[in-house]
Amino acid sequence: MKAVRYHGPELPFALEEVPKPVAGAGEVLVEVKAAALCHTELHFADGTLNLGVKPITMGHEAAGVIVAVGEGVPAERVGERVIVYYYVGCGDCRWCAAGEEALCDKLQAEFGFISDGGLAQFLKAPARNAVPLPDKLSFEAAAPIGCGVTTAVHAVRLAGVTPGDWAAVYGVNGVGFGLVQLLKHRGAKVIAITRSEARRAKAKELGAEVVIDATDATTVAAAVRAATGGAGCDIIFECVGRRETMDACVGWAGALGKRGRLVMVGYTAGDAHEFRYHPIPMVVYEQRVLGSVGASLGDLKEAVELVASGAVSTVVDSVIPLADFQQGLDKIKACDCLGKVVCLPCA
Ligand SMILES: [Zn+2]
Ligand SMILES: [Zn+2]
């Protein structure tokens, strides 16, 4: 079968022929009908993320059809339309017991990170990782739920949003469009901050109350303060993680208000983009800074329900054959996409 393979940092990804996986005991084999590209792939390509496992197949946002099951899995699952949850925890550490597999102490697999992922024609996974998709969701629309929407669901759960909160999303595309809609759905007043005019327009269409042009990051904090009556935000989801975007959030006149929560979702390579914050304003304003990674299986199930109910929709920029994945990644790198780029491995 064809798969997009990673051979280590600084090396180009390659579309290669690899053996088709076989579902083992307790596993299902999924024929991948659609797999979304994520900024994470760029982090692998440029060495920002180097987890030391190679070669592997990339891709952690895959939807498809179960075509075979291993021992112990009901044969009736063959033919089921599913989306794949990409973490496989050990099942017995305290994090797994709490349903937070993304924090597992002895992670068994993480598709597209430390094990073979979904940018391929087939993907095998434990049966419990294959979450049923309603018939009305197309595979192309469903694939970006896998990371784009689940990451938003998880981050909002950690941040604890209250109706009426001012919530900003700094950096709006895959996860960002999910955040804008989910925050709106939870009753927050949403501010979308991005340099892209097209993304601002889309965020507005999806329910953002205020949109702010971030072309000059030094103007963002004042614009947020003005929009919130001087108070600043109750929550900011930082999906960019550059020095200037993080700087805009914090400090005496930053975009984050009193008791505000700054949620780190995105990051950028290099020492120049380390987070820096003097504790005095943080102490005086009683602010909190937290990180958010991935999602739980429960978050994925919730994300599928949110999309199925229409509360959140995935935003798809383009649908391309798997063979054109590099063009898709180049588009993401150039910030030249409105939403997610989805690959069709079987086209
Ligand atoms: Zn565990
Ligand atoms: Zn992702």
From TrEMBL:
Cofactor requirement: Zn(2+)
Pfam assignment, any one: ADH_zinc_N
Family: Belongs to the zinc-containing alcohol dehydrogenase family.
GO MF term (any one): zinc ion binding
Keywords per UniProt: Metal-binding, Oxidoreductase, Zinc
Domain Enoyl reductase (ER): 8-343
Protein name in UniProt: Enoyl reductase (ER) domain-containing protein
